[in-house]
UniProtKB/TrEMBL annotation:
Residues 107-128 have a biased composition (Low complexity). Coiled coil: none annotated. This is DapH/DapD/GlmU-related protein. The lineage of its organism: Bacteria, Bacillati, Actinomycetota, Actinomycetes, Micrococcales. Pfam families: Hexapep.
Length: 128
């Protein structure tokens, strides 16, 4: 949605299926029967890389050189030179000089032994 300004800097990379919205609606149903909405500018500074399926919400600024991980929902400002990801997006780490040296890193293999079941109770927990 583009009812508010969206500013995109130089050398910004977008992967497929990125959504940038500069508008939103009130949460309470009584406040939106006639299509009421608000607009807030979105700013994406220079050298940002936005991954696949990212959603950027109204009023957000993404700082110079930052990377937004695939699938993130960006609802808060992102400072320069960080990697942010998640729902909602949070800072995962800083981008440092060590990141200048890079190479392809093969993905890890998921383990069949990993489970989402809770860990067994310890003796203290069992005694409660």
């Amino acid at each position: 949605m583009d009812d508010g300004p969206i500013t995109i800097g130089n050398n910004v990379m977008f992967a497929p299926h990125v959504t940038i919205t500069a508008t939103g609606h009130p949460l309470h149903p009584a406040a939106r029967p006639h299509g009421e909405q608000f607009s807030a500018p979105v700013v994406i500074e220079d050298y940002v890389w936005v991954g696949s399926n990212v959603t950027i919400l109204p009023g957000v600024t993404i700082g110079k050189g930052s990377v937004i991980a695939a699938g993130a929902v960006v609802a808060a400002n992102v400072p320069p030179m960080v990697v942010a990801g998640g729902v909602p997006a949070r800072i995962l780490r800083e981008i440092t000089e060590a990141d200048r040296e890079w190479h392809y890193k093969a993905p890890r293999t998921l383990s069949a032994t990993a489970t989402t079941a809770p860990a067994p109770a310890t003796t203290k927990e069992t005694a409660r």
